[in-house]
Amino acid sequence: MSRRCELTGKGRQIGHKVSHSNRKTKRRFLPNLLNVTLLSDALGRSVRLRISANALKSVDHRGGLDAFLIAAKDSELSPRAIELKRAIAKKRSAAA
Fold first, then answer.
1. Is residue 11 in a domain?
2. Residue 24: left if φ>0, alpha if ψ -120 to 50, beta else—which one?
3. Is the separation of the CB atoms in 51 and 6 below 8 Å?
4. Mind listing the pLDDT tens digit for each residue in 37-60?
């Protein structure tokens, strides 16, 4: 399982650990990933995703999973999230 957010694409970053004597060694900065269950209003079911805490705040701010996925770019989303986005768009177009 990769250390990558399924909604924002946020992954690990590489930097330096700097000691008191200013010696620099490589280290990894890992994203704060959470296993969450989000409710899709259009699909009428819950979806389990592994997303970052920052993405969880963004989903709440945009008004839910459906609104977040419709506004998101496909290049940032995981393959599972792209499938969800297409299913939500299909349900919305059928309802309209």
1. no
2. beta
3. yes
4. 999 999 999 999 999 999 999 999
Position 5 in a domain: no
Q: CA–CA separation, 57 vs 28, rounded Å?
A: 23
pLDDT of res. 52: 97
Between the alpha carbon of residue 24 and those of residues 13, 27, 28, the distances in Å are: 16, 9, 13
Q: 34: which strand partners?
A: 51
Per-residue model confidence (pLDDT) at position 2: 83
DSSP 13-79: EEEEEE-TT--EEEEEE---EEEEEEEETTTTEEEEEEEEHHHHHHHHHHTSHHHHHHHS-TTTS-H
Q: How far apart are CA 2 and CA 38, in angstroms?
A: 20
Tell me how many domains the chain contains.
1
What's the token pair of residue 16?
Answer: 């330096």
